[in-house]
Amino acid sequence: MTRRILVHNPKGGVGKTVVVALAAEWFLHRGRTVNLIDADGNHSCQEWVDNNREEGREISTPVDADVEIVDTKGVPGSAVPFLRGSDLILTPFQLYGYDVSEVIEMFDALPAELRRRVGFIPNRVRAMGLTREQAEGFEQIESLIRQEGVGRLLPGLVDRVAVYPDLFNGSPVNFFERPAESGKSVANAQQESAELFRQAERILGLDAGAPR
Ligand SMILES: Nc1ncnc2c1ncn2[C@@H]1O[C@H](COP(=O)(O)OP(=O)(O)O)[C@@H](O)[C@H]1O
Ligand SMILES: [Mg+2]
Q1: Residues with beta carbon < 5 A to ion ligand 2?
Q2: Residue of 14, 67, 150, 164 with fewest CB within 10 Å of its CB?
Q3: How many domains does the chain have?
Q4: Residue 11 C-alpha to ligand 1 middle, in angstroms?
């Protein structure tokens, strides 16, 4: 049975494609097959797939994959065709007041059975700890989830400009299999994102019997 992950935020530039690429890398690393669907006309996800192919690595298996991951455009309503069939809706967002209000609006507009499937991912969190604005945004999402009794706040991703932008270049080596010589930031990013996707794996029931 294919598990479907939708990555959506009605805003652009918040880390959707980064989350799509990291999720794909995680499940490949765990021995699963992945089908990537690029529903964004900018095709940054498809470019990443093409860049990896040039490096000799095939990311996407279109038929009968274990996990299907849909990358969407940062425009309100762009996820509608994919919402119903999604087992998990990942929403990366930045912890700024305006961004937080937008994702809360998106969440409120979803029917209850879809709200249950939403996992919020705070992105570009400061490595030194949250700023006051970030802490407030965090609290707003936490209280929203508490009030509604559905949805969840997933482990966030730290702002790592030395790591994530380079991800899109493609590489012959899986992100989670890059050696320690790749540097401390890469090692930290591997650890932070592994924590996030282990949780996603549990939500999808893919943790038991993970091939490795
Ligand atoms: N945690 C992060 N640390 C550093 N840069 C990031 C992080 N998340 C995203 N970025 C960068 O921000 C830009 C926008 O991210 P992207 O995933 O393309 O957003 P979206 O798909 O939502 O438009 C990209 O250049 C990406 O590399
Ligand atoms: Mg994108």
Answers
A1: 16-17, 44
A2: 150
A3: 1
A4: 12
